[in-house]
Every structure is written in structure tokens, then in C-alpha cells.
Amino acid sequence: MNAIEVSGLRKAFGKSVALDGLDLSVAAGEVHGFLGPNGAGKTTTIRVLLGLLRADGGRATLLGGDPWRQAVSLHRRLAYVPGDVTLWPNLTGGEVIDLLGRLRGGLDPKRRAELLGRFDLDPTKQARAYSKGNRQKVALVAALASDAELLILDEPTSGLDPLMEAVFRDCAQDERARGRTVLLSSHILSEVEALCDRVTIIRAGRTVETGTLTELRHLTRTSIAAELARPVSDLDRLAGVHDLVLDTGPDGRTRVRCEVDSDNLDALLAAIVPAGVRTLVSQPPTLEELFLRHYAAANGNLPGNEHDGPVPA
Amino acid sequence: MSQVLAPPAAAEVRGPGSTFAGARELARLAIRRDRIMLPVWIYALTAIGASGGYAVKQIYKTPAARASLIGSIRHDQALSFLYGQLHGSSLGALVAWRYLSYAALAAGLMSIFLVVRHTRADEETGRFELIGSTCVGRHASLAVALTVAAAANAVVGVLTAAVLTLTGLPLTGALAFGLAECGCGLVFAAVAAVAAQVSGTARGARGLSIAALGVVFFLRAAGDSGGSHGLSWLTWLSPVGWAELVQPFAAERWWVLAMPAISTVVGVAVAFALAAVRDQGAGLVEQLEIGERMQQRLHIAVLGIGKRHGKPLLKASGL
Predict the structure, then answer these.
(1) In whole angstroms, how far apart are CA A94 and each of A78, A98, A286?
(2) ipTM of this predicted structure
């Protein structure tokens, strides 16, 4: 049975449509990435799943139950971390963690202590003294130390510094190993790539793509920009190279820009190294670029062979 | 970590009790949050009655001193507008005349601030989102907010009665005074509970409730001062007026307390019914798509503020 099963979900706030027939299914035990640009409807979907909002149409099933009608009993089995954590200014972080633990019906004190150490969080400070990152950590520790079978994390690393992002990734790996189901919403592609088994990509309240990361490999092309000492040829014949731009100066110095599928990165590098690499910049695509490239041009249609299509300015 | 993988509890269908699930924890949270604010409110409100009782007693010790004052009060419409009608001629009656309306007004204010703080303000800031994802019933936070406000009013009522008795006034009248004050507080706890469902912002909910409090205070004032124009019935439309109409230290009409009691029950029922149908984080005004112009008119009318001030105020209140 799937932990989360959503089909054709609709929700409008006044005239603005937040969800326009969204589909999402998360199998039990998987870490599922929920990707979309800001305002795509990720948080609205999660609020419907938490029974905080009532959907206008479509179906949503959470852990086999109705998220609106059975909210209380379902919430015993899940833990949630909002994207923007606000706390009560005159309560300490530790008090909030314990309160959330009691409200969820259980907190493992050993794990609580361990997680506080890993996230380097002082639980005795009042929440008014916490930075955004520290407030985020309070919610994360409370969720991870619970014994919930489903974790719903809405952009959990927003506000965390890179060091703590790494700690979060470790923790998420542990949760996967422990067999918990995780729904991880994010607008950072690399975070989802590092953690998730399957990914659902949404845009403007609609699901545009869903599958394993291998199936979505075409989305994870790397951009390469290199300066070579000598001209190079035949790059356009290499498999997996897209949007190639070659610019050879009068002295033979050549600038190369292209996109390459991650699987073919090795072959491309092997082809340019003999030409004498002077500089090399390699960048994973940001989600924003990805959306511009794949979905804006396709005007909401499912992407097919538009990989070599026009690149919007 | 065996407990982490414990088998899921069978999904139970929501029973009537589970809409209040988690209320005990939320009550503990509310008391912890208000550990300074609540005692300050209660102290300040009790002080109104206490200082009033003491001051009147010091100034009008003799029946002769009281008689001249009473003579002038009876024929002064401005004083009736400000403080209300004088019922009886005892020391206690003077205390009730001078202070009860304002004690009731203050109790109403306390209720408004407490209820909105624990309902709409938590939702607006997003604090409720953390709580709402746990085993907390849809009605739990509203129930807790109302309970905190009711308890605060009860404590204020009992303490005020006790302090008035200590200043030497009769116990029965002191009790009537305390209950009358508490009654107005309860009505405005219910008013604020409804406003917190209607408005999407804490500022808006407080604004609506305080505007209502202002209107009913004015109704009392108009009724009390307009007796010669046949307007005394206006006092009966006002929860602040009901406090006065109990007539503590005079006729002590206990049955008048049924007015605030019934209004509170009706208001609370309306608030819970509205809470059951609306989305978390949104007010009914937003959810029902009441037109923008209509919202502006509503706010400008309710707050009695000119158009020039209306717009920025509307913006600030998020409506």
C-alpha cells in the first residue's frame, strides 16, 4: 500500500488556483522528492495531506486514511517539519521539542539527545534568541526523534548552513535505512538527487513528471564551460552532448560551452583533455534553469524531445 | 530502535471526542506562555474593584456626604453617560455605579486579547502549523483559548468579590459585582472567538472585537443617559449594560446574569461551527471571497474611520 496517494487534487484560494489536478504517489519505505519552483503548490499539497486545508476536488489518501476526517489518528503516525518554523518566543527549544513529542504521543529521549548533539542545538535557549536555522533545527529534532512512520519535510534545509545541510542529509539517510517513509519537498535539485529514490516534479499546481532518478536522468545534465589551448573537433558527435557552442579565436584558443548528460561526462572530458584544458567550470543545473528549459518552452505539455529546443533568454 | 518500526495503530475513525484531542497539552502550553501576562491582567482587573471600593469608602464615609453626591448624580446626564445609572444609595451602590461599567469593559478587553492570542495569532504567525500536524483536534485550540479566558474571568470575578468584601462591603453585593463583571468578559471571549474565525489576521480579529466592545459601551451610555427620551432600553442590548442592570448592592437581580450566559453559549457555538468548516490559516472573509469593496466598507463602517485612514488600516489588518 502506498503511504501517500493523491490524484487529481484541486484547491483554489479565491481566484488563484493553487492545485490544478495534482497527482502524487509515495510508496511505503521510500524517500520521495517533491520538487517544484516556489509557488508551485508543494506546501498547499502538504497542508491538504495534513488535514489543515480541505481540498476542493480530487482524492488524497494518507497512510490508508482520509487526511481531513481522520486527521488526529493519522497524525499519531507522522511527523512534519514546516518550511518556515515559527516558535513561541518565551519557550525554550527543548520545551518545544518535548511539547511536540507529547502531542505526537512519543519521543525517544536517547535519540533526542543524540540529534541535539548532531545539529549542535542548545535546547535551553528561549526561542526568541534562535536564528531561522536554529528554529528549523528545533522542528527537525522533534520530527526525527519521534517514532512516526512517515516524515513530511517541507524544504527542511532552508535556513541551514552547508555544514548542517550535510548533517541533515546524513540523518535522512539514516531514516531511509530505518525504513521510514519520507516526503521531502524542495526546490533544490541536488538535495533531492542526493537523497531520493523517486521524484515528483510539479509546476503551477500540476504534476509534470514523476519517476526514479535514473528515469529522470535527462533532467540532471551538467553544464560545462571550458577554455582549451587548441581547437577540438567532433564534440558534437559524442553521445549525450547538447547545446554545444564552440568559439575558436585566431590564436587557436577555443571556448567550449555545452550541456552533457551525467552518464556521458567522462567521454566528454576524455575528448577535451588532449586539446589542453586551461579552465574548466562544471555546474549542475538549477531547478529554475531546468524549468525554463523543459517546461516553460513546452508550455505545460509533458516534455518529450525538446532537449534541443530553443533556450529561452 | 525497535519502537521506530512498531506496526501502525489501526486507523480509527474520528470520534466526537477527538476534535478536542490534545487540549490538555495545549492548555499547559497556554499557561506556560502566559505565565507573566495572565497574572498581570488579573492583578490589574482586580485592582479596579479594590481601589474603587477603597476610594469611595474613604471619600464618602458619612451618609450625609453620600446624599449630596447622589442628589447631583441623579440629575446629571453626562455622569449617566460616563458611568451609568445609580441604583440604591449605599456605599456599595456608589462603587458599582462608578466602577462596574469600566471593570466590565476591562474584562471584555482581557478576553479579546487572550482569545485572539491563542487562536488567530498562532495561525497567522504559522506557529499553529507545527501543532496542527500533531494529534490535535480541530477544535482543541479554540476550546483551550476559551477555557483560559473563562478561567481568567472567573478568577477576576472571585478576587474582586473577595477584595470588595474585605473593604467592608456586603458579601452578596460583592458577589453580584464580580459575577456581573465576569459575565461581560465571557461574552467578549465568545465575540473574539467568532472574530478569530472570520478575520484572517490577529489584528483584524482584535479590531472587530474591540469595535464591538466600543459599540456596546456606547449603547449602554446612550441608554443610561437617554432615559428621558425613552432610550433606556438600549442598555438592555449591551453586555456592558447587563453588568449594571444586575444592580449589585441594590436590587441584585441575579436573573439578568442569564443574558451574558445565553449570549456566551450562542457565540461559542457559532465560533465552533465556523471553525469546523474553514481552512486553517484562512479567515472566512478570505475563504468566502467577500468582495474587496465590501470588505473595505465593512471595515470602515465597523471601525468608524474615514476613508483616508481606512485604506492603510485595511492593509495593515490584512483584510
Answers:
(1) 20, 6, 36
(2) 0.77
